[in-house]
Amino acid sequence: MENFKLELASLSFRVEQLERKQSAIAESVTRIDSQLQEVKAILQQPELGNVETLQVKFSELQQQVDRLRNLSGEGDKKAISAAKSPDIVKQFYERVERQLQGISGDFVEKTEDPAREISELISEMSQEFSDRIETEELIETVENEEEAEITAEKLLERYKEGDREFVALNLNKLNLSKQNLREANLSEANLQGANLSKAILYATNLHKANLSKATFYKANFNRNSNLTKSNLVSANFQEANLSGVQLTGANLSQSCFVKAVLSNTNLSQAKAIQVNLSGANLSGADLTNSELIEANLKEANLERANLTNVNLKKAKLNKAKFSESANLNSVNLSQADLTGVNLKKANLIGTNLTQTNLSCVNLLGANLLEAEFTGVNLKGSVYDHDTAFPIDIDSVTTGAYLIAPNSSLQKANLAGYDLSLSSLTGANLEEANLQFTMLVNSNLAQANLANANLYKANLSQADLTTANLTGCKLLYTNLNSANLTAANLSKADLTHANLYSANLTAVEWKEAKFIQTNLGRANLMGLNLCEAIFQSVDLSSANISGANLSKINLLASRLDSANLSGATLNNAKLIGSSFNSANLTGADLTGADLRGVNLQNANLEKANLTGANLKGANLNNAKLTGAILPDGKTVSSIDRDAT
Length: 643
Fold this sequence. Notes:
Strand order of the largest sheet: 1-2
Shape: elongated
Distance between the termini: 98 Å
Helix content: 10-25%
């Protein structure tokens, strides 16, 4: 323990030295800025006599740069190394020196304001240097390599005997995997490097415990577990269940929480620098005032999470899930990557978005007023007339797509966006990529979707009245209850598409492909379907009355309870199809191939079956009064058991 105290004292001394050096560096940078202002004033004076003065000023500036080098490059190098700063400082000097050399040569001819260039450079590099020191200080931990005070066997024996008090014990590197330690008091214990994979830790007290480099793979905690102010640096919590756990003020930096469950967990004031939370469930979590600098939150679930004053600088948030209308004001998202994130109706007022990657982000209805917007990447994102950008931003030049009536979106890549309830009437979406796009209840009336890719898109209840869908890829597309009145589906591929209850009145079908398509309860009344390609489709309860299905191939299709009254099915191939309880009154089935067809309970009154092939057909309980049979005879009366 004495060595441990000496190490703490040494560390404290080194930190104090580092703080003094940082203060000296800040003072030096301030002087440089002051001198730069003088240089700027000189540069604005055209007199040639000022060249000598300019050289003197730059000489003074060079001395300050040298002083910075001495401050960070000499003395306690161990302290500087702990902050991983030498590379940053070295880059800083090299870049400043290049600018200085350039100004003394021909730099003035190439740059309108060289003093401003150097001032911005110094500010940028000083901030990066400061951030790196701050980040490393936040994740710094004192490691205790002393041997454990007791063995795992002894601890488990005591636990079995009813002992729950293990406060401040050194349990370094113990193997406690798969053990039940519920309600154990391990506060301030040293479990560094311990193995607690799949352990049961319900209501376990780990307050201020040292859990650095410990393994909690698939471990189970509950809302009564206490990990407040614990040290979890470099720990492994992959797939662990920490739902509702108290982690207030804990240090999770550089730890792994891949696919972990942290729903409703309290992470307020936690330090989670460079933490890996990819795929983690943080729904409803409290992240107030937490530090998540350079955190990996790819595909993490942040729905309903409290993000007040969270620092997500340089965080990876690709495809992370936020609630609609998420509140992100006061959040630091500078230099973060939010590619593919849905920020629909999000509150981003005053949010720091400096150099943030917002490419392919959904910003429909989002409020970005007063946001720090310098260097933001909006390429491929979507916005609408309700999106509020900072007043100095011209949305037209951002590279984002405007989702609005009559928009020009030819070949636009809108794959995966949630554009539900959007108005795109008359929009040009020719050859657009709309794979997996949500267009539920959207208005696409008169829109041009020719040759667009709508693979697995969701257009349920969408208005596609008179829309042009020529050559459209609609494989596995959801068009449930969509209005396609007078739409053009010529040459469209609707394989496996869902058109249940869709309105298809007056649709153009020429050469459209329907393979295993769901057309149940769809309205196809009076349509000319003779040139469409059908195979194994579901037309159960569909309204096909008066439609022309001449020579159609409906092999192995379902038309149970469908209304085919007055429909033309002459020479149609209906082998193996089911017309159970279908209405075929007055239908024209002359020459139709009905081998093996199920016509049980079907109404065939006054239907024309002249020349039809009914071999193996099931006509049990079918109504045939007035029907013309294959031999040309008309049925005047028939009992209920006729076949």
